[in-house]
Design goal:
Two copies of one chain form a homodimer.
Chain A: H1 42-49, H2 55-64, E1 65-67, E2 72-75, E3 81-84, H3 90-95, H4 103-106, E4 108-109, E5 117-118, E6 124-132, H5 134-141, H6 146-168, E7 175-181, E8 186-195, E9 197-203, H7 206-209, H8 213-216, E10 228-234, E11 237-238, E12 257-262, H9 273-301, H10 305-332, H11 335-352, H12 360-382, H13 390-405, H14 421-429, H15 436-454, H16 459-465, H17 470-480, H18 486-502, H19 506-548, E13 561-566, E14 570-572, E15 575-577, E16 580-582, H20 583-589, H21 600-605, E17 614-619, E18 631-633, E19 639-646, E20 664-667, H22 669-679, H23 683-688
Antiparallel strand pairs in A: 1-2, 2-3, 3-10, 4-9, 5-9, 6-8, 7-8, 9-10, 10-11, 12-13, 12-18, 14-15, 16-17, 17-20, 18-19, 19-20
Helix pairs in contact in A: 5-6, 6-19, 9-10, 9-12, 9-15, 12-15, 12-19, 13-18, 13-19, 15-17
């Protein structure tokens, strides 16, 4: 649950890109700031809080911090044990479940090392090096027109990634990813060590992991044991990870300085006002579709226990995203926020743009109008919201993968370049369950809304639905396809274009038919929006660097950041919120009905547990979705919390940092100790963490 | 389907009230304008179009125009025959259906007069007189503080209504309703003759009435036979209505002047910019709930034919409202619209407000912030979105009705005053079906969202859901109540407060428990929002009258209006849309699957029908939801169309009139003639309309 504003998959285009700081975006004061490790404001920290952070501290923490596919995590033992949130392992728990054995709801404890089960689509990355390649990227695009420059930028990034991975060799291989910071003001190659065998070791029941469910999500006070324990493997054995982080089981004091290391997914604090207004228009479009899908899932879940089980994981993710977007929209419609952005932008703009000269803000504004026009077809066709189905996504990967692999790596769509293929193939071939009933639901929904928004006379819609209802088409595709079988997917993938051409699989046929439409709208978007915005951003970034240097931090990009703050509550409408909760109140608040039900494992032991044990805590760290699973550290780099959420005000952090009210919410170590030593039969894990029962 | 943006029931408060014209709102040019019959711009019409409209013409048309509970209609025979839309009769068709006999889907034809079936909750009002009572209302509030004035205004309106009905006597009784025009600048009593026995005579199949369904809703070109025929009865016999309107079956020519008489429901063209911004915030809240309910209905409808049938009518209404609100939100987020409003408001305001003096715009803006705070509790508790269930609405009417009837009429909540009671009792006692499965769905949904938005720790939520899940509570209330039986409702109503106090019906108990919470938030809203807004509006109206007099028209209030326009298409992105469609294309566009399926009755006769018969037409009349069912008339007051929708641009008509693109969509008389004489066995009705087969 909670802070897993899931990132777009690596291959999804993000429609609204981001732009550099307004001039009056003062160098971060308060404890605001998602700092890159190469630009951490150690001096400011020392001045304000009297805490010294050394380069060695930074290296140690960096190499113990993990990026999962969708979250953050950290090493907590020398044998590859990993701490993250329950909601970060939710997909894995759903994948290893089956009818009558619901790991997501009931939890999972591996009694022996042999019982640790692989999470087929998960991986763990550790950032080993940050290489600045700004000059190379700039040189590749210099002097070119916008569209050509945009294509050239993609090409050189693929080339740089491939060269980096080749140089690392195969003995200690690296995954190299290009990273754009400061809205294109800096380009980096991030060198990761990747563990692609990650197994689940421990997870509590959903009822206590997400106690309070969606109603309590993004709330504090809170009582969630939102934790899971995984393990990284190499060559079939637990990975050696001597540089792990230790727990301080007593946790931090109020006002103590604490650090959050992790991968904040995405912030939009530096968008131009034109881009914010576009979000104001496009967010309700997303929310309406999400709300309807939520209703369909909920009603479907009432038709039987198994149906309830198979939609639980996507429904939880969806509800989390709905809450995020809903509060983001509130912020976007907040006149005081917009007024501050207008002022800041006006200052930098008037300083930068000479009369009659180039005006990147105006260029971006024009591109945003085009963005608004393209948003509906792009969403339904290229982002495939009209074909909302796991089976369709397989088909589309196969169809595109065949076409793209026939080209040189750097000429492909970026998500099919050679460096991107290993993970793509891992996920394509992963033997994870596919649920036909669920796919029919989502696919029918997608088709029906696509017809509504594109209109029944759109040629693609006519092609698809001239003779079938959305329900009929969805049923015939899902029932007819064989792509639920990983072996079939592998065979088609390995067969390349010939296998695609020869396939009579109905889902492959549909994906083949849709692909030209999708490529067309994608190219329109890239040429008419992305190319203009990227070029505009670069110019604005240059103006901003001239004014402020790197005394500010870049917007979040699901890359490694460190921030500091202190343990504290806040003032909510005149009432001071205390920064710690205790176990006793969780039992008092339990109604016995989902989502306010303490599970039997806890109620059975209730009399033996310390009711004063601290459960969750709040701090003023500056985080955002993607930071889920981040370790919270004290000045000694000991774990004193496990970040899993923010309070409701934290959602406005997408656009600005509200010092007074934006708070991070974490699991307290004390409740994790209670869980591992008193509630669950988890002696093996507890011992590995140095806990005697 | 379509243009039935259903009005709030008479007793529902509308959260955002409306305010007077900005100064630069130029006297209506083009063919814009929803004119009251006492202020129709006959001279302007003569100058522009050379058409003469006499007072006799106006009287004739006025007394042939009907206000239904939710729509407009007109008399079309001397024996009470009424023409309206299919979607205006949809609730009636659903009410007279049962499992295995679906009148909404399959249509209805009364072969004899005896087979005409009463629509239990329907009525037909004809406006007989408009009495200006502005002076009396103003006198009642003069010199009072805002809250007291607001209470006094309600009281005097109830007194005036009661006195008017008493004066009319019982021989030819009148229903007297107070009407506020020009945002409180004028107050009227409208005297209606009411027919409360309305029966269904003819309706085609849903498939052709709403051909194209939701995807085509608010679109043109279009092919919908959105018609129904009803009949007014008095004393058990067809009403004598000699002043009926005749058809011109050949319809109008392109560019011919046409008139629409009817009851546009609600426009917000004169809101202050502060009020518009509040709508911008509150509309997404509505849309998200509506979209989720849509998803729940759709998924429920897939679980069986009977379940499909029982949600069809509310789902259609909901989808229509979603489309309206969605496009309204687009307009509210349109910077050019807002800029024009800001300019107009600034001019009137700077002319009106002296430095340091009273500023009604500022007062309203402050009240709007309070409105935004109260919106969530008001919506869930007082508007009962948290208790979304027909059975709960009965319970609440009974609980409140008992408490209110114990007071003098003018001290009651207005919807329980003596003049309001006859209709309220008719609807309470109407023997219409209640569907427990549907009520459980909507009630569970309401409770779940109320918990989400008010929070699990809100005292009302805690009271309700401390021991039950929303599903459990909904099931126990719906299964336990006896209020589905009209006799039980009548008994409790007649038993007054004693019957309420003694009742052990679970729905009555819940309504009793909720009522204090609901009254509290309603009073907060009335005192802190409504009172301030109404007073501010009166001041702005006075300023506007000083500048413009009545050379402009008041916002729509579901009261009788007349407007003129011409038959024409529009230019859509460079393509000229032709204003007429023909029968041939409907068949070509039929896929055989809902919602693009011409029914068997039509396909069976296809070879015998004139494929060039005109089907629908578009005009530039200025209408809005509530005008559904309006007759479209030529200069001779002959029916040349049946209004049922607008094009997609017409939805922005809530806020401004887009001369270039806002179009009305109507059923052409030619297709009605084909239907009545060639397709359906409707000889009896056809003969009454003067049509030989």
């Amino acid at each position: 649950m909670s802070f897993s504003r899931l990132l777009p998959p690596a291959f999804a285009l993000v429609l609204v890109a981001t732009v550099a700081f307004g001039l009056t975006a003062r160098p971060a004061r308060a404890d605001e700031g998602m700092w890159t490790y190469d630009n951490f404001p150690a001096a400011a920290l020392r001045d304000k809080h009297g805490v010294e952070i050394t380069p060695a501290w930074l290296d140690r923490v960096r190499t113990a911090t993990i990026r999962l596919a969708n979250c953050t995590a950290s090493f907590i033992s020398a044998e590859g044990l990993i701490l993250s949130n329950h909601h970060c392992a939710a997909s894995c728990l759903a994948q290893i479940s089956k009818e009558g054995q619901d790991r997501l709801q009931d939890g999972f404890i591996a009694g022996t090392r042999e019982q640790e089960v692989r999470c087929e689509t998960q991986y763990a990355d550790v950032l080993m090096r940050m290489e600045n390649v700004t000059d190379k990227v700039t040189a590749a695009t210099a002097g070119k027109d916008l569209k050509t420059a945009n294509d050239a930028r993609k090409k050189v990034l693929t080339q740089l990634e491939a060269a980096c991975e080749k140089a690392a060799g195969t003995k200690d291989p690296r995954r190299c990813e290009s990273v754009s910071l400061y809205q294109g003001g800096q380009h980096f190659l991030y060198h990761y060590k990747r563990y692609n065998d990650v197994r689940i070791v421990f997870a509590p029941e959903y009822a206590v992991a997400a106690f309070g469910g969606d109603p309590d999500n993004f709330q504090f006070p809170r009582w969630c044991l939102d934790m899971s324990i995984l393990r990284a493997y190499e060559n079939g054995k637990p990975a050696a990870t001597p540089n792990f982080l230790k727990f301080n089981w007593d946790g931090p004091k109020e006002n103590e300085v604490v650090f959050v290391t992790g991968h904040p997914g995405s912030t939009d604090r530096q968008l131009t006002t034109a881009q914010l207004k576009t979000q104001r228009i496009e967010t309700p479009f997303w929310l309406q579709r999400a709300a309807e899908l939520r209703g369909r899932y909920i009603q479907f879940s009432k038709t039987g226990a198994e149906n309830d089980r198979i939609v639980a994981d996507p429904l939880n993710s969806l509800e989390n995203s709905i809450k995020v977007r809903r509060k983001e929209l509130d912020t976007l419609l907040d006149d005081s926020m917009m007024a501050q952005k207008v002022t800041a932008e006006g200052q930098l703009r008037s300083r930068t743009v000479s009369s009659g000269g180039a005006d990147p803000w105006a260029d971006i504004e024009k591109a945003m109008h085009r963005d608004e026009e393209l948003n509906v077809p792009f969403t339904f066709i290229e982002s495939a919201a009209g074909f909302n189905s796991a089976l369709y996504r397989y088909a589309r990967t196969l169809v595109r993968g065949a076409a793209e692999r026939a080209k040189p790596s750097e000429d492909r769509l970026r998500e099919y370049s050679d460096p991107a293929l290993p993970l793509l193939v891992q996920q394509l071939n992963a033997p994870v369950p596919v649920y036909p009933a669920r796919d029919k639901l989502t696919l029918s929904f997608g088709l029906e809304r696509m017809r509504e928004y594109l209109g029944p006379d759109h040629p693609l819609v006519r092609n698809l639905l001239a003779e079938f209802s959305p329900d009929e088409l969805a049923a015939s595709l899902v029932d007819g396809t064989k792509l639920g079988d990983p072996a079939v997917r592998k065979q088609i993938w390995d067969g390349g274009q010939a296998a695609i051409d020869a396939s009579t699989d109905p889902m492959i046929r549909i994906a083949r038919m849709v692909d030209p439409y999708a490529r067309t709208v994608r190219k329109q978007y890239e040429d008419e929006v992305e190319a203009v915005v990227d070029a505009g951003q670069e110019k604005i970034a240059a103006a901003r660097f001239a004014a402020l240097g790197t005394s500010v931090y870049p917007d979040a990009t699901f890359t490694l950041r460190l921030n500091y703050g202190t343990v504290q509550g806040w003032n909510e409408g005149g009432t001071q919120v205390v920064p710690f909760t205790q176990l006793a109140r969780a039992f008092e608040r339990s109604t016995g009905r989902e989502p306010f039900r303490m599970p039997d494992s806890w109620t059975a032991k209730r009399d033996q547990l310390d009711m004063n044990a601290r459960f969750n805590l709040s701090t003023n760290n500056d985080i955002v979705g993607g930071n889920s699973g981040s370790p919270m550290l004290n000045a000694k780099a000991e774990i004193v919390g496990l970040v899993f959420d923010g309070n409701i005000h934290s959602i406005s952090g997408s656009f600005w940092f509200d010092t007074a009210k934006n708070r991070t919410v974490a699991v307290h170590p004390a409740i994790m100790r209670v869980a591992l030593t008193q509630v669950y039969p988890a002696q093996r894990v507890a011992a590995e963490l140095g806990l005697a029962k």
